[in-house]
Amino acid sequence: MNYTIDINRYNLDLSGITSLLFKIKACDSAHVLLSTSDVRNSSKPLSEIIMGYFSDSSYIIYRAESTHDTWFSIPNILNCTVYLPFWISWASGDIELGTGVVVGEDILGNLKKTNHFEVRSIGVFTDRGTLGNWTIQVEVSDKFAGYFDSCSMSNTKSDVVVVDDIKCSGIRCATICGMSNTCMGFNFNSVMKRCELLSFGSNVVTDIPHHTEDDWRFYSKCYNRKTACLGCY
After folding, report:
1. Which residues face 158 on adjacent strands?
2. Among the three residues 136, 164, 181, which one is the final residue of a domain in this structure?
3. Would you list the DSSP string of 164-225?
4. Res 162: pLDDT
5. What is d(CA 6, CA 99) in angstroms, rounded to the nearest whole number?
6. What is the Rg, in whole angstroms, of the alpha carbon atoms belonging to the chain?
7. What does the pLDDT read at residue 136?
8. Same-domain pairing of 120 and 11
């Protein structure tokens, strides 16, 4: 676990979840570790999923007092230049690896009869000498925390959908956005006292597009008791 990127620090709420959706762009040897330890103690029971080891071999390994594993060969499971979608599920105690964005469909391999445990930390990494880029789906609650974060970015304007453009104070702008379920944040110009209320629209957004523009500042709605502020990653 010491060699992994800790997913918990990106506000992934692990309480009660039984699956992980992600995309990976790497040539080979991508690893996901599911641990019973909330302090990332590798001596505690864990499961390791290895995709594309030496390009075509993949493994699911469960380690506790003894080690159980399964191996399956899928050539070209990863791609050096294209993000490919995967899911991992541990709902039944079995560990399953699949491809696509729907958990339970297109299963690539599974390890049966593992001891069911609560996943308290998740880590990802690619082998030494291998570059990997990961996109991981993080669910947040739909309860607005009543707090906006500027993400410490001055002179920054978000480029998501503008649903309203009004002239008002910053406090008024935040109040209007806070009362709207569809408003995800706002752009505010402190010189012109101009407020742009923002929405994701109907599209799935994996990043918050923005550009630099003088006197503007983007403010994001925050969720999960201020820990998840959209666009501040």
Report:
1. 210
2. 136
3. EEEE--HHHHHHHHHT-SS--EEEEETTTTEEEEEE-TTS--SS--EEE-TTEEEEEEEETT
4. 94
5. 22
6. 21
7. 86
8. yes
Residue 162: inside a domain, yes or no? yes
Given a contact cutoff of 8 angstroms between Cβ atoms, the answer to whether 201 and 183 are in contact is no
219: its two tokens: 């403010």
75: number of Cβ within 10 Å: 8
Q: Which two tokens stand for residue 54?
A: 């030496």
- Tell me the C-alpha distance between 30 and 108, whole Å: 15
Domain contains 210 = yes
Q: What is the pLDDT of residue 114?
A: 67
Alpha carbon distance 31, 164 (integer Å): 44
CB atoms within 10 A of CB 232: 15
Tokens of 94: 């079995």
Q: What is the pLDDT of residues 163-178, one digit of tens each?
A: 999 999 999 999 999 9
Q: Judge if 34 and 121 occupy the same domain.
A: yes
Instruction: Indicate whether 49 belongs to any domain.
Output: yes
pTM: 0.70
Low-confidence stretches of the chain (pLDDT < 50) are none
What does each C-alpha distance from 164 to 3, 121, 168, 176, 201 come to in angstroms?
46, 41, 12, 10, 13
- Residue 131's domain comprises 5-136
Q: Could you tell me if 198 and 184 are in contact, meaning their C-beta atoms sit under 8 angstroms apart?
A: yes
**CA atoms of 74 and 59, how far apart (whole Å):** 11
